[in-house]
UniProtKB/TrEMBL annotation:
Organism: Paraburkholderia sejongensis
Superkingdom, natural source: Bacteria
Bilayer disposition of the protein: Multi-pass membrane protein
Protein name: SulP family inorganic anion transporter
Keyword flag Transmembrane helix: yes
A Pfam family it matches: Sulfate_transp
Length: 520
């Protein structure tokens, strides 16, 4: 029975791993192109995510690799540091920081980041993805391309390709319609992932144009350009670790550390969010230790920095594909990594037929899902308190960078929380010469001013009840004001009763609270 179960699980993992590979291949290539680096760098990260991170991860179904959410950091980081080689040092350092986060058990801290801030960050990434991928979707290139393609049209800022635009539009139509009920009725649609369908469309269009209308074919700069790797020696020369030594000379550069910290924080947040999402869709609801996941991601990014790969994170698109394809264990993610490695050697000629417009369409559609209008409407309907940090984070990321935008969003959330705490923690009600002072929530030092003002409004000879049964915490300054008021009450003919919740009884007995009346 155990043998039957093993082979059943193995079969499902092999199938799921193949499905994830078909989803991951175009995403790895597209993210590399969007990041402005060689497509091989995206495949390196996908391979490391499958062979290394999956083996070390505590999650049975999570799949790691290059993430669209990190494209903005990669592009800005390379521009800031001046070269991809220098950026790889930041990737390596970010891996060390992530591993440190895991050792310090910092995984739980992600739960304290406000949800509107995370949504604002993802929405900003979506907007940037859409904006940055439009040139590739238009086939935008040098004006000299007009002479090489009959489908190229000269514009003031270069030339655009009508074929690339058509391919991008058809790709977006496939991506948008693939999940609709009308198309899901067909078995072929249910079997083929939408990114793979887009890639097959692009390959077919490239081959058809070369055979039927060569003058309309996309130029070489409009297609993926993966280096041919016929041997392990060729693979070694394609990797970046050969010039790794000089990178350490830049450790004193503060920009290196800024990019590394940004990568470590954003990649860790995205990983932990993906991990939580995977646990929710896992039919068996298996728990994955977040700190172990951070350490696994840290090791993956350390290796990616050494070998010349893009930064790695757990990716919900690939992970959900793994779940829905029936994956049962980490073997499915490992299989996807093995297939990516094989594709580097065996599928180079096929991969180089993929139009960049197809990959741009996949990323534009991903960006739209991250920043869809319904998200803005849903957050706005929740009220000002969540909407403000959402917008502050979004604008902050677009105007500055991810780290500053996240910091601004968290600061906005903290200020709103302080304002909510300051606003009406204490309420005064009056009926004749009877007064009720109610602590509606915990009272910090920010409530001292309003509490003092209310106490000054109580006249001599009044009867006062201070109801603190709803407060777990009352600041020392507020308690001192209350103690002074109770001490002076007999001289003013005021009868005072202080009520507190039962759990505060021990504190009251130690003198933190005074419960007195004028008759005492």
């Amino acid at each position: 029975m155990n043998t039957e179960r093993f082979f059943s699980t193995l079969q499902r993992d092999l199938l799921a791993g193949t499905v994830v590979f078909l989803v991951a291949l175009p995403l790895c290539l597209g993210i590399a192109h969007a990041s402005g680096v060689d497509p091989f760098a995206g495949l390196v990260s996908g391979i490391i995510g499958g062979l290394v991170v999956a083996a070390l991860s505590g999650s049975r179904l999570s799949v790691s690799g290059p993430a669209a959410g990190l494209v903005v950091i990669v592009v800005d980081g390379i521009a800031r540091l001046g070269s991809f080689s220098a950026f790889l040092l930041a990737v390596l350092l970010s891996g060390a920081l992530q591993f440190g986060f895991g050792m310090l058990k910092a995984g739980r801290l992600a739960g304290y980041v406000p949800s509107p801030v995370i949504k604002g960050m993802l929405a900003a990434i979506g907007v940037l993805l859409i904006v940055k991928q439009f040139p590739a979707a238009l086939g935008l290139g040098d004006a000299d391309a007009v002479a090489h393609s009959a489908a190229a049209v000269a514009v003031p800022f270069g030339s655009i390709s009508l074929i690339a635009i058509l391919i991008a539009l058809l790709s977006l139509a496939i991506l948008a319609g693939w999940e609709t009920r009308a198309l899901r009725r067909f078995v072929l649609v249910r079997l083929i992932p939408s990114p793979l369908a887009v890639v097959l469309l692009g390959i077919g269009a490239t081959l058809a144009l070369k055979l039927v209308a060569p003058s309309f074919a996309l130029p070489a700069e409009g297609l993926v350009a993966l280096p041919s790797l016929g041997s392990l020696a060729a693979l070694q020369s394609a990797l970046e670790f050969a010039d790794f030594g000089p990178r350490f000379a830049q450790l004193a550069n503060p920009d290196i550390w800024r990019v590394a910290i940004t990568l470590a924080i954003v990649a860790s947040l995205e990983t932990l969010l993906s991990l939580e999402a995977v646990q929710q869709i896992d039919p068996e609801r298996r728990h994955a230790p977040p700190d172990r996941e951070l350490k696994a991601q840290g090791v993956g990014n350390l290796i990616a920095g050494v070998l010349g790969g893009l930064p790695i994170t757990s990716v919900i698109v690939r992970s959900s594909a793994n779940v829905y394809a029936g994956g049962k264990s980490r073997l499915s993610a490992i299989v996807h990594g093995v297939l990516l490695l094989v594709s580097v050697f065996a599928l180079t000629e096929v991969i180089n037929l993929i139009p960049l417009a197809c990959l741009a369409a996949i990323l534009i559609f991903t960006g739209f899902k991250l920043a869809k209008p319904s998200l803005f409407i849903a957050v706005a309907r929740q009220g000002f308190a969540p909407f403000a940090p959402f917008i502050v984070t979004l604008v902050g990321v677009l105007a500055t960078d991810l780290l500053i935008g996240i910091a601004l969003g968290i600061l906005c959330s903290v200020l709103l929380a302080l304002y909510a705490n300051l606003r009406g923690p204490i309420v005064l009600a009056q009926h004749g010469d009877h007064y009720l002072l109610s602590f509606r929530k915990d009272v910090s030092f920010l409530g001292k001013v309003s509490f003092k003002r209310y106490l000054q409004q109580i006249p001599d000879g009044a009867t006062v009840i201070v109801d603190a049964t709803r407060a777990d915490f009352v600041d020392h300054d507020v308690r001192e004001l209350l103690d002074d008021f109770v001490d002076a009450a007999p001289r003013r003919g005021i009868a005072v009763e202080v009520r507190y919740q039962p759990r505060a009884q021990a504190n009251a007995q130690r003198g933190w609270w005074l419960r007195r009346t004028a008759s005492e």
